[in-house]
Amino acid sequence: MDPAAAGGLAVRVTRPAPEVAFIETSSSAHWECFWVAEGEHTLVVGAFDRGDKSTPEPRIHVINKPYGWDMRPASDPPSAGDDQDLLVAVWQLLS
Amino acid sequence: MSTTTLERTSEPQRIWHEGDADIPAEFHELLVRMLSYHVENSANPHYTDLLTKLWDRCLRFAPDEATKGLLVKLMQQEVEHGIINAQILSGLGVDHVDRPIEQYAFRHPMETFCDLSYFHALIDRVGVYIGETWDGVPYKPLLDIATRVHKEELFHCTLGLRNLRLICKTPEGLAEANEKIHFWWPAALDMFGRSDSDFGDAYVRWGLRKKNNADLRRQYIADTRPLLVDLGIEVPPNRLNRRFL
Description:
The complex is a heterodimer of chains A (about 100) and B (about 240).
Chain A: E1 10-17, E2 20-27, E3 30-38, E4 42-49, E5 59-64, H1 80-94
Antiparallel strand pairs in A: 1-2, 2-3, 3-4, 4-5
Chain B: H1 25-37, H2 45-61, H3 65-91, H4 113-131, H5 140-167, H6 171-190, H7 198-205, H8 213-230
């Protein structure tokens, strides 16, 4: 089983730079990816869910960076928990 | 007892819209039954009572401000889910439901952050499997909201698991989790109902559900038990303390 799976939900995060993350999440019924970039005052989040018939287009969100936003993983190398934390934070931002 | 695996077919089928005069009577009856029994329903005052209790626990038990913000987002979505369900029911001619929430998991006193986290990690997770798997149902109002609601339920149970992980980092927290799993694990499995439910099979036959109660419960166990074990939680046997089999 994927170590980051959450109830059939797998989470994979790639962090090419401290301010950038690519998140892929999938289950048997769902696949979605996010791309997050952090600036000084702004976050940009790209999102694409190929199974979402109600919103089939990729989306870009430009968001005022929430107070206290921190996308750095707590551990090195990042743990499955760090990946889950980032996914939950992005879901909170976009929903 | 029903042991056959029933799954929705992939054949094209008629999709009914709100107000269609030719919705089959059995399908209409099953839709109303399913949505009336669904816990999230702002037309049911018992759901409002439940939300009030949960808001209180989320605001009082959150161990830090970041977690509180996440729980507030979760609660906002729970309110919206109730409104959506009430609106869809209204479109089927049902404007008010006064149905006490039957599942005993919702009546359990939530005394600590551990209880609240189990509620989200295990009870909300059931909604991912049985309550809100509407992505293929032949009724347009449900189809329109299916993806959004399903993803929000994924958020809720993933947040619950994240919070359980925080709890299990300390020996005291892990001890509490190991004590309370003896209530929350059987309560979650009982949420799926009886394995021999005729309604479960009827829901599958009309495309309202992908699998029957027993199959969904098996999938839930296979997915969820390893997540708890990974946190160090000693999960009891699946049949221990169960009220419905």
